[in-house]
Amino acid sequence: MPTDLELRLPSLLPKAIAWVSAQSRLILETGSPLDERGLRLARAVGVSYPEKIRVSAVQALPLPDDPELQSVAVETGLLGPQMIGVTLGYGVYVREGYISNRLISHECRHVHQYEAAGSIEAFLPVYLHQIATVGYHDAPLEIDARRHELDVA
Ligand SMILES: [Zn+2]
Q1: How far is the CA of 98 from the centre of ligand 1 (A)?
Q2: CB within 8 A of 85, min separation 6: which ones?
Q3: From the CA of 106, how far away is ligand 1's center (Å)?
Q4: Which pLDDT score is estimated for 152?
Q5: Measured between alpha carbons, how far apart are the two ends of the chain, in Å?
Q6: What is the pLDDT of residue 16?
Q7: Tens-digit pLDDT profile for the chain (153 aa)?
Q8: Cα separations in angstroms, 6 against 69, 82, 122, 132
Q9: CB 85 within 8 A of CB 111
Q10: Residue 147 CB: number of other CB atoms within 10 A?
């Protein structure tokens, strides 16, 4: 039986894509490029264009204004208070105080996944469908990112 979120996904997706695209552009304009260690981590987890990545350190991950999108983001855990990073295309938000090789390599693996999908518009339907059907922890793209976490650059 499809989950409630799975049923709502078709109407949520356009809003999710618009929000992720806008946030991604914002990070690309205001974020910092990876340092040498970050570039090494990005290459090690398969990113093709590590120099395109920008990282923005924030006190709290931003939430969408749209009430439905916001509640889904928090309920699924994607942007919940326990989350310390999120990757939006080549833009990466990390929470201040939580930056580590492990976190950067995890988020860079998501960048690789966006690259493999080809675009935000192509990545998000697949990723969010996984979240809607098996949940954040068991989503294959999250398992893949966890498997690529590196402690040393
Ligand atoms: Zn992840």
Answers
A1: 14
A2: 61, 92, 93, 94, 95, 98, 103, 106, 107
A3: 6
A4: 81
A5: 43
A6: 97
A7: 778 899 999 999 999 999 999 999 999 999 999 999 999 999 999 999 999 999 999 999 999 999 999 999 999 999 988 999 999 999 999 999 999 999 999 999 999 999 999 999 999 999 999 999 999 999 999 999 999 999 987
A8: 13, 23, 17, 5
A9: no
A10: 10
Distance of CA 50 to the CA centre of its chain: 15
CB 152 within 8 A of CB 105: no
Token output for 76: 């699924």
Q: Are 49 and 115 contacting, i.e. CB atoms less than 8 angstroms apart?
A: yes
Cα(105) to ligand 1 centroid in Å equals 10
What whole-number distance in Å separates Cα of residue 71 and Cα of residue 109? 26
Distance 10 CA to ligand 1 centre (A): 22
Which residues, listed in sequence order, are joined to residue 33 by a DSSP beta bridge?
Answer: 54
pLDDT recorded at residue 1 = 73
Closest among 61, 153, 59 to 108, alpha carbons compared: 153
HSE-CB at 85 with a 13 A cutoff on CA atoms is 26
pTM (predicted TM-score): 0.96
| Residue 39 contacts residue 101 (beta carbons within 8 Å) | no
